[in-house]
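Subject: design request, 399 residues
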């Protein structure tokens, strides 16, 4: 069978697609379509795991934690899952709900309101500086800027933690890939370094006003155990940076490639919210997380067995033609609010409002300062779980 060949053994759609091959990661969308056409869930024979690929099925599975559990790990290999035991994203309700209530405190819209002024001032100065240059590298120059200045500050780790957070975060996501994959192996080593740092942190070394210190205070108040607080440091450290960085880089990349949509947004800035959702639908920063199937399950006629792992392929669900008409078309007038780029259900991204605020703040200044983006150079990052660019050099025509 060729890489994308499909077979249907009985009631089991099956594919020998190399889901983690560099070229599949770089150009995934035709492969996702082939998988969606084959069934609601397709058995990836090279990896002994299911890919759940259609929009409705991904959402249904994400709210069915009785069957699709996170407690046994959201990675595809046992080592990363074992190392991450106790982390909030690796838990189910009711425990998860209790942890999440504490975790959410600094991330709710009310708390984020206080951040708006600071983010705006920083974004405006950086956008002015870069647009003044006429040409700039947008991933490190612009997309990194707010996450690396503001978010690392808010979390309030030590200087070592602040410096290494981005490096650790990429490794933590790579670690969740299939066993034996070179990116997974490197990712696991990086994740071990990050866990060692976080678990050894002295609370006195933390910024007392930061999110991290807030977890220890919650433990003092009896809302969490000390061990839970320590594990949850990872929930702030892992997903807070490159997810947002990739979202903003992809926004710039899409608007450079679709100048009509940039014109439309500049003429109608009130479309900004829709535009952000459409960017995340088109170029979902997180490709997939996994679940363990805790009992035999029938997914629209496909029999899934207890003990199998299933990937929730958000990036495929977001291009599902059963849900979105012309899903390959970038259209900022589309109502894509029900995309699953932030997941869905109980594990819906805890940083969603922050991420949208950061991306929206930067785009808001670009709308006023940039008439046209031209791509000078781009390089796609090959990563087990994250989709984004490692380089995007842009030339801009000022407004
Ligand atoms: C565009 C940016 C972002 C994207 C695309 C994204 C994507 C996701 C996705 C797909 C999930 C679902 C996980 C699952 O189903 O198991 C998730 C959960 C989560 N995200 Fe994000 N994320 C982003 C930004 C952030 C930020 C800025 C933070 C900062 C704190 C964050 C923290 C989390 C946490 C803690 C969870 C787990 C929630 C839980 O277990 O209840 N994310 N994110």
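Subject: RE: design request

Done. Sequence follows.
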């Amino acid at each position: 069978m060729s890489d994308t060949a499909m077979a249907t053994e009985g009631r089991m759609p099956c594919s020998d697609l190399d889901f983690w091959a560099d070229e599949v990661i770089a150009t995934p969308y035709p492969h996702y379509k082939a998988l969606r056409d084959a069934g609601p869930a397709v058995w990836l024979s090279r990896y002994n795991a299911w890919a759940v690929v259609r929009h409705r099925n991904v959402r249904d599975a994400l709210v069915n934690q009785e069957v699709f559990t996170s407690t046994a790990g959201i990675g595809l290999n046992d080592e990363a899952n074992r190392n991450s035991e106790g982390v909030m994203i690796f838990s189910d309700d009711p425990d998860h709900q209790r942890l999440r209530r504490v975790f959410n405190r600094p991330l709710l819209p009310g708390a984020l309101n206080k951040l708006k002024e600071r983010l705006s001032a920083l974004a405006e100065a950086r956008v002015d500086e870069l647009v003044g240059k006429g040409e700039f590298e947008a991933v490190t120059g612009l997309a990194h800027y707010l996450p690396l200045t503001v978010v690392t500050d808010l979390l309030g780790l030590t200087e070592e933690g602040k410096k290494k957070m981005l490096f650790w975060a990429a490794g933590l996501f790579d670690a969740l890939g299939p066993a034996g994959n070179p990116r997974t192996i490197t990712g696991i080593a990086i994740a071990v370094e990050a866990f060692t740092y976080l678990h050894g942190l002295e609370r006195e070394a933390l910024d007392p006003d930061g999110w991290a210190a807030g977890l220890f205070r919650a433990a003092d108040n009896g809302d969490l155990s000390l061990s839970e607080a320590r594990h949850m440091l990872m929930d702030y450290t892992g997903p807070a940076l490159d997810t947002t960085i990739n979202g903003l880089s992809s926004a710039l990349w899409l608007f450079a490639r679709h100048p009509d949509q940039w014109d439309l947004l500049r003429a109608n800035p009130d479309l900004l919210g829709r535009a952000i959702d459409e960017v995340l639908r088109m170029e979902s920063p997180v490709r997939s997380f996994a679940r363990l199937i805790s009992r035999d399950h029938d997914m629209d006629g496909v029999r899934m067995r207890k003990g199998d792992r299933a990937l929730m392929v958000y990036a495929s669900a977001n291009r599902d033609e059963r849900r979105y008409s012309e899903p390959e078309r970038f259209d900022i007038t589309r109502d894509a609010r029900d995309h699953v780029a932030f997941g869905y259900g109980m594990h819906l991204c805890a940083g969603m409002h922050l991420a949208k605020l950061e991306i929206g703040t930067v785009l808001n200044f670009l709308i006023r300062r940039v008439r046209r983006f031209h791509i000078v150079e781009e390089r796609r990052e090959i990563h087990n779980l994250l989709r984004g660019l490692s380089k995007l050099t842009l030339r801009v025509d000022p407004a």
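The chain has a mean pLDDT of 95.
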